[in-house]
Amino acid sequence: MVRTVRVGSVEIGSGKLAILAGPCVLESYDLALSVAETVRDICARLDLGYVFKASFDKANRTSGAGFRGPGIKEGLAMLGKIREATGVPVLTDVHEPWHAAIAAETVDLLQIPAFLCRQTDLVMAAARTGKPVNIKKAQFLAPEDMAAVVGKCAETGNENLLLCERGTTFGYRNLVVDMRSLAVMRTLGYPLVFDATHSVQMPGGQGTSSGGDRRFVLPLARAAAAVGIDALFLETHPDPDKALSDGPNMIALADLEALLRQVKAIFDTSRHLGFAELPPAGTPFGGRG
Asked: How far apart are CA 36 and CA 115, in angstroms?
């Protein structure tokens, strides 16, 4: 069993699939608002919880010339306006400890990027705000290693945590998703998020920027829903091929509803059957002697 974490008006872990979705980075207020309104309405039709996501700064760029976003002051102002205009909670990444308290004044969910999940000062600063924190498992970590990350947050008294799988390094410029990771992290007792779009990323795959293959987003999202997740993280854009960041692995906004319908159908079936819970090591299949 996992605890329930409330993000604004959305409960994650209560048995209803939540969607964390939006553009990779804040390109403009109008584009972000349009995406937020569109995804909000899709999720309302499908009875899915919805949290809008976008980054005010993409600090981890392949090239120094890569687009990073509007920065913390302007970006948080945008996110606050989107939150007010749409009535949905909002999520953003924090990259340095001093970002956490400032971002927490505006957003409902703080996110620790995968490469930074071992940065003790950052993780604990985010947890100390008291806001829920979505922690992405690093591409180089085993799922069991997330227990230590959870422990750092627990030291602050904040247990409103989400744990996110986003793929594991598999050779050069490639990631693979080991679905066993979801079952392992579920034993830690916190809601699970599957990042379906970053999992198909090809880091540095285009030389001065990352590549990706969005064809695999749907099959991986379906597989994760079958294993058992509480939320699905997706990056979406009206025209991914013209996006300023992470375009190759983003889902076109026009394709999103059909994808979510499939994932929800599998999620509902898996929830009815019972999510895959790991029995103690050495237990025969099905937990029966």
From this structure: 26
- Tokens (6 digits) for 181: 């990771």
Query: Is 65 within 8 Å of 101 (Cβ atoms)?
Result: no
* Cα–Cα distance measured from residue 68 to residue 70, given in angstroms and rounded to the nearest whole number: 7
pLDDT by 10s per residue, the chain, length 289: 899 999 999 999 999 999 999 999 999 999 999 999 999 999 999 999 999 999 998 776 565 666 778 899 999 999 999 999 999 999 999 999 999 999 999 999 999 999 999 999 999 999 999 999 999 999 999 999 999 999 999 999 999 999 999 999 998 889 999 999 999 999 999 999 999 999 998 876 565 556 778 999 999 999 999 999 999 999 999 999 999 988 889 999 999 999 999 999 999 999 999 887 777 666 665 544 3
Whose tokens are 């009875």? That residue is 47
